[in-house]
Amino acid sequence: MNKNIIAVAVGALGFVIGLGLLGNAVKNRNKSENTISVTGLGTKQFISDLITWSGSFSKNNVDLKSAYDELALDRKVINDYLVSKGIKQNEIVFSSVDIQKQFRSYNDSNGNYVQGEFSGYNLTQKVSIESKEVAKIENLSRNITEIINRGIEFTSSSPSYFYTKLATVKQEMIASATKDAKERAEKIAENSGSRLGNLKKATMGVIQITAPNSNEDYSYGGTFNTSSKEKEASITIKLEYEVD
User: Which residues cross the membrane (predicted)?
Assistant: First the structure.
């Protein structure tokens, strides 16, 4: 008899506890559903303050030493020209010399490719400049034909543009995106007759840097345009709030 009473009491207690746990589960579930998720956007336009530019030049000769000596003469002409244009000597960097053997090649009577006899050496060297004087290097890159007119086989690349204060820009955009997201959340809560509660979660997107008013695609890992001097950066912040 006593055992039956105890069993019933334990069962009733378990039922009550079970109801309590179920009630808490429903309450917590409803609480988790009472949230607002919003995404804010922060953008900023700026002009690059660092530029890099490079070009390459080459010489051909059947004698390696002669080819190297001729390349050295061209290197001096190029260096003197750049210095004459106001480029600082410590901004001018010449790479190591790349040496390639050249062969006369042809197709035989059966159409097969045949590498023929040795025809000489091709030596190539690269010169590069990194400077904060953006306008000066831009002008230099556009008028590099002055080097070609001196009899040097020179190939110029397009300049690349960078910004050295990107960390500051990123902080400003994060603040702007966060403010934008919070204002959106407050508006949604207000329109639904609720009150914005505590912030539960914040997720930051990757920074995207493109040319202004361009149709460049955003990348999952972030886009970084280096071809445009003027740039537009953007970042998104996703905020999740409780709603009371």
Answer: 6-26
